[in-house]
Amino acid sequence: MPLSFRNILILAALTGILGASGAAFIINRGQSDSSSVTAPTQREAAGQETGDRLDLTDSQLNSVKVAPVETREFPIEKHAVGSIQFNQEMSVDVFTPYAGRIIALYGTVGDDVKKGQTLFTIDSPDLLQAESTLIAAAGTLDFTTRNLARLKGLYATRAVSQKDLDQATSDQQAAEGALRAARNSVRLFGKIDQEIDKIIEKRMPDPTLVVPSPITGRITARNAAPGLYVQPGNPPAPFSVADINTMWMVANVPEADVPDFRIGQQLRVRVNAFPNRTFNGRISTIGASVDPNTRRVLVRSEVNDPEHELRAGMFATFTIETGSPVRSPAVPLDGVVREGDGTMTIWVTSDRRRFTRRTVKVGLEHDGYRQILDGVGTGELVATEGALFLSNVAAAGVQ
User: What are the tens digits of pLDDT across the range 108-157?
Assistant: First the structure.
């Protein structure tokens, strides 16, 4: 059917409208494609490329330090936590040897004392009785000695019999023995010969019993006061003294670690009070049983403390080498990042600008370095500082 002129005009108009719409669609589509192509380039310019690769800007590089992976020695060590205690084998409870009331005290907790230094004195009835016996024995000896001398003169003139002379001799010898026994009894109270001679000379007993420190050390406890009545062996002891040249470190280690320890093994001890100091010691005791509640074993060590710096109750840790050191690739601690899924990663680069994240297997930690068992080789360039910054940049790029 032939088209009329009017139909031809209508068809031409519709064709023009469709052509204009198609052109607009093509132009808009082109602009959309153009923006999608340029967007990654902008992220790259900002140093936020998505994924495990980053191309940093100059300003971002200031937050990162790069160095080659080096080989370091990692000692095979065991660690344990414990506390410092007095060496109980070198601690003494100081009791009075005889009953009496305390007169005076000459020390307090924390004081350093020498062997033989007076700790306290007591008024001792037993000492008074012993000294009274001493004075009486000395008087008896003096009398029998003078009597024997007198009878010897009389016997020379036959004024007395041999029997009387023999009796006087026997009495004098008995008096000498009694005096020796009396002197020894007083000497048991700590009196020296000069003091005993002075008591005999003045005929005046001194009931003050001096109780000295039996060892050189530090006073660790005092349970005494003037006027307190004390008895031998009756707890608590008036004083306790400990030799502090060596201290104990008491720790409880997991039962699985016990085979790595032995008596006499050397170790290093650190305390919070002296973070930059190391104290040397050795294992002195390993427990004979496992605590059923904690599944741990007591390990006690003697720690040398020549400067007397350690205090009982200090929190402490010890480190002990249980094997020969191993050499492995090492990365500073700041160069290793623990990711959210628990994996350990580092950032590797070849040109100090483009970085690639790499998963590694880590081992021991020592002196600020982490042992790398797998994932990187010696000499490769890695981010030694700022690795966490790189991971944060990568995470921002993914978002």
Answer: 999 999 999 999 999 999 999 999 999 999 999 999 999 888 888 888 88
Cis amide prior to 275 (ω within 30 degrees): no
Q: Check: CB of residue 94 under 8 Å from CB of residue 214.
A: yes
Dihedral, 141, 145, 146, 152 alpha carbons, nearest 10: 160
Nearest-angstrom CA–CA distance, 377 and 374: 8
Per residue in 268-318, pLDDT tens? 999 999 988 899 999 999 999 999 999 999 999 999 998 889 999 999 999
List beta partners, residue 268.
280, 319
Q: Which residue has the tokens 């230094």?
A: 117
CATH placement of domain 94-120+212-240:
2.40.50.100
Domains of the chain by residue range: 53-74+327-398, 79-87+242-324, 94-120+212-240, 125-206
Cβ partners under 8 Å of residue 265, min gap 6: 282, 283, 320
pTM above 0.70, yes or no: no
- CATH class name, domain 53-74+327-398: mainly beta
CATH number of 79-87+242-324: 2.40.30.170
Q: Which residues contact 195 (CB under 8 A, 6 or more apart)?
A: 206
